[in-house]
Structure formats: structure tokens, C-alpha cells
Design a protein that fits this description.
Elements lengths: L13 H7 L2 H4 L3 H17 L5 H20 L11 H13 L1 H4 L7 H35 L6 E6 L2 E7 H25 L2 E2 L15 H7 L4 E2 L3 H6 L2 H28 L6 E2 L18 H24 L13 H24 L2 E2 L1 H10 L4 H10 L4 H18 L8 H7 L7 H4 L2 H7 L8 H17 L2
Parallel strand pairs: 3-4
Antiparallel strand pairs: 1-2, 5-6
Helix pairs in contact: 3-4, 3-7, 3-9, 4-5, 7-8, 7-13, 7-20, 8-11, 8-20, 11-12, 11-13, 12-13, 15-16
């Protein structure tokens, strides 16, 4: 059965039917479609547009179809045009005349808009919850490393001393913004389009506010044209997912670097590594690499929908059938990554000695040496110059600022005293960076507590 066949005298060509059909992918919207139909039927019954008897019969039939699909008792027909046709056809087959009444005051255009928006809205909440679980994992890991000194980097060069807790907390902030973006997008898309019809509403006296509340939406859409033409909610959802994938791709890159012998900062658990078919010594970070690679797939999904939408006049156009596969793929890909990425991180082992050793050898305390001279009354630019010459002297002599003798220090400035060694001690360097947001253990502890409070409040 085709919902639009009354106008046509000839059957649709089989190749056109296959080309036009969306059942292969929109079948996953069955729950949204059925719950939206239930709410629409309740609205029709409430307004006296259909009888209470027909409404009860139709609703019971719809719930039965939902139960049968979810139990596996009913298979969705792959030859149906779309999920809407399948559900309505199956309902009519089961309950007869009452099933034929459920589409009163509704178009497939507002029905599709509802189903898709309902699905994306729920995906925002569920993926957001998985991102928060990842944040909680990282925050707990950080709690064990407030005093684990490591190099902080710029340009992938050792720069200043920080702690592993501070580094992990930085990723928590990126992920917090990801979760907040999804929550913001969800608030904007929390509008029910049912009642917008094909593009110009309906002549039936529908209570759109009632239907919105029945389907879990907080408000109705404000313009019938925009209701069926809008896919901003899907674009914003995929934009948020793309930024998130950018973040965990960057994080994956660090895991890959840290687990390599050149860094040696971390080790992967065997359960989250693979080997080589020819090199028996290899332990490859495939989970991190594949996560990094899958980011491009999600970026492509976003670009797909942007390209579909960029030239469409109002209101609905068949091009918009291409909106779903890219959204489904992006959501599935992100979820797949999150479900292996979090446990992979949880099983990482860290080498505190390797991290501290890298921090000690990289002149990460040079800024603190310059700050020491500033504390003695020297202008920063002059202190900076003196410290730069000290670093060059250490490199030429195979020393570090910690091993340089006080006599040598004094050849660069008489302001240097024995207390310089305490000033450039790595732990002291970190501890003095106690500004809010800094790497000092107290500052990081306050940051992690803030994160935990946010996670608990937002749960």
C-alpha cells in the first residue's frame, strides 16, 4: 500500500520504488513513529475529531505493534515504502476502519519531522550521558595523580612542568563542553512539529500543545513551513558530535604517542591492544588509532547533510530523505568509539618515573629561574635573557639547571643565591602555579571537585 496511490492510475516502476524507498534505514524510527501516532490519536479523540471507541482501538493496535516489533514477533517489511507506511498499513490490517482514521489532520511531512526530531533529541541525551561517564572516568584517574609531575608541551616540545592530573583535567574540560553542546542543542530542538501538516497546518482543530506534552516535548514549533523544512536540529547534533570526535581524536593521538617507546609515559592493557602478524614484539594501539580515524567519518556525515540542505527552497523536498543515514551513522560511530575508548583509558598504566625524567631533562624550570630573578628585583625581560644564556651554557656542557654550580650561576648574575635550587625544584615549580585553573595540586583538586559536583548535579 502507498499512502498517496489514489492520485495515480499506474503502478510505480520497480526501480523507482527501490530508489524512493527509505525503509532500509528509517525503520529504526519505528518507536518514534508509533508513539507519535499514539499521541496524535489521543489529540484527535480529545478534540472530538474521531470517536473515543476508534481512538481506543487505534491506540491499542499501535501499542501491540510496538510490542511485537520489540519482541521480534513482527518483522518490518523491507518492501514497504517507509516506516510510516508500514506502521499505518499494519495497523489497518489489524484493526480495520479505526486504523484508516489515524492520519486525519497529519501529513507525512510533519510525521517525518516529528519522528526524526524525537530520535535526535533522545540521542542527544544518551550520547551526552556516555560523554559524562567518560569525564567521570578521567576525573577519577586524575585523583590518583595530583603529584605526578610531567612535562607540559607547546609545539610538541617540552615547555613547563605540570601534573598528570592537570593534563587529564584539561581533557575533562573539552569533554564537558561536548556534553554541554549536546544539552544546548537538545534544548533548542525540544519543539514538537505535529500539527504543521504538509506545510500549511490543517483545517482540523488540533490541540498542538496537548500533543507536544504527550510526546515529551516542552513546546510546539512556531511556523508550519519551518516545522517541516527545518533540519537545523540534525545539523547541530552532528556538529556537536564532530567537535567531540575532534577532541577524542586529539586525545587518541596523545595516547598513541605516550605508549610509544620514544615517550614511554603509558602502557596499554593487552585487552585494548593488538599485535603484528610478522613482528612478534609489537603491541599496537589500534583502539586509539581507529578512534582517531573514525573522526573523519563523522566529519563527512556532517558535510553530507550540509550539502543536502544548502540549496533547498521551503518547505519539504525529497532531498531531505538523505538526512537520516548520515545522522544515524554519526551517532552509531560516536557511540561505538565511546564504548571502547573509556575502558581503554581506565586500563592505562602510567610511568611516573618516565614522566618526571622527561620533565627534569627538558629545562622546564627555566621560566621559574627567570621568575626567581624577577623576585630579586630584575626586570623580566633581562631575567629572561640571562636564563636563556644559562640554558645554552647547560646544553653546551651537558648539564641541567639543577646540576649547574652556584659559582657558575653567579657568573651570569650576582643575584643568584643558594635558594635558587629550591626555586627551580620541579615540585616547587608546580606547587607555585596555584592560580585557579593552574597545575598546583590544590588548584587541580579544586577543579576535579568542581567537575564531580557538576556531574552529580547534572545526573
Amino acid at each position: 500500500m502507498k499512502l498517496w496511490e489514489g492520485r495515480f492510475a499506474k503502478e510505480t516502476d520497480e526501480s523507482v520504488h527501490a530508489f524512493n524507498s527509505s525503509i532500509a534505514f528509517d525503520s529504526r524510527l519505528y518507536k518514534a513513529d508509533i508513539l507519535g501516532s499514539v499521541a496524535h490519536v489521543k489529540g484527535l479523540e480529545k478534540q472530538g475529531i474521531i470517536s473515543k471507541e476508534d481512538g481506543e482501538i487505534a491506540r491499542a493496535g499501535l501499542y501491540a505493534i510496538l510490542d511485537d516489533i520489540e519482541s521480534g514477533a513482527l518483522e518490518i517489511d523491507p518492501l514497504a515504502e517507509d516506516i510510516h507506511t508500514f506502521v499505518e498499513g499494519e495497523l489497518t490490517r489489524r484493526v480495520g476502519e479505526a486504523g484508516k482514521r489515524i492520519h486525519t489532520g497529519r501529513s507525512r511531512n510533519d510525521q517525518v519531522a516529528f519522528d526524526f526530531r524525537w530520535y535526535v533529541k533522545n540521542e542527544c541525551a544518551e550520547i551526552g550521558a556516555e560523554i559524562k561517564a567518560l569525564i567521570r572516568t578521567l576525573a577519577r584517574m586524575a585523583q590518583s595523580h595530583y603529584d605526578t609531575v610531567m612535562p607540559g608541551y607547546t609545539h610538541l616540545q617540552r615547555a613547563q612542568p605540570i601534573t598528570l592530573a592537570h593534563h587529564l583535567a584539561a581533557w575533562c574540560e573539552m569533554l564537558r563542553r561536548d556534553a554541554q553542546r549536546l544539552a544546548d542543542a537538545r534544548r533548542r530542538m525540544d519543539e514538537c512539529p505535529l500539527g504543521a501538516g504538509a506545510l500549511a497546518g490543517t483545517t482540523f482543530d488540533l490541540d498542538r500543545e496537548f500533543t507536544a506534552k504527550e510526546t515529551g516535548f516542552s513546546r510546539i514549533t512556531r511556523n508550519s513551513l519551518d516545522s517541516v523544512a527545518d533540519r537545523d536540529f540534525a545539523l547541530e547534533f552532528m556538529a556537536a558530535l564532530s567537535i567531540h570526535m575532534c577532541h577524542i581524536s586529539r586525545f587518541s593521538e596523545e595516547v598513541i604517542l605516550w605508549c610509544g617507546a620514544e615517550f614511554g609515559f603509558a602502557g596499554l592493557d593487552d585487552a585494548y591492544s593488538t599485535g603484528s602478524s610478522i613482528m612478534p614484539q609489537k603491541k599496537n594501539p589500534d583502539v586509539a588509532e581507529l578512534t582517531r580515524g573514525k573522526s573523519g567519518r563523522v566529519f563527512g556525515d556532517l558535510l553530507t547533510l550540509l550539502t543536502v540542505m544548502k540549496g533547498l527552497p521551503l518547505a519539504y523536498n525529497k532531498d531531505m530523505q538523505e538526512d537520516k543515514e548520515c545522522v544515524f551513522d554519526a551517532a552509531d560511530t560516536v557511540r561505538l568509539c565511546l564504548r571502547v575508548f573509556a575502558p581503554m583509558l581506565e586500563t592505562l598504566s602510567f610511568s611516573k618515573d618516565a614522566m618526571r625524567g622527561a620533565a627534569a631533562k627538558g629545562f622546564l624550570n627555566a621560566t621559574d629561574c627567570a621568575d626567581y630573578l624577577v623576585g630579586k628585583g630584575l626586570a623580566f625581560r633581562e631575567a629572561y635573557n640571562i636564563t636563556g644564556r644559562l640554558v645554552r651554557r647547560c646544553i653546551e656542557g651537558g648539564e641541567t639547571l639543577d646540576t649547574l654550580s652556584l659559582d657558575e650561576y653567579k657568573t651570569f648574575s650576582p643575584l643568584f643565591e643558594r635558594d635558587v635550587y629550591a626555586a627551580i625544584n620541579l615540585d616547587a615549580c608546580v606547587a607555585r602555579r596555584a592560580v585557579p585553573g593552574g597545575p598546583a595540586p590544590g588548584a587541580v583538586r579544586a577543579h576535579i571537585e568542581n567537575l564531580m559536583d557538576w556531574l552529580d548535579e547534572d545526573a
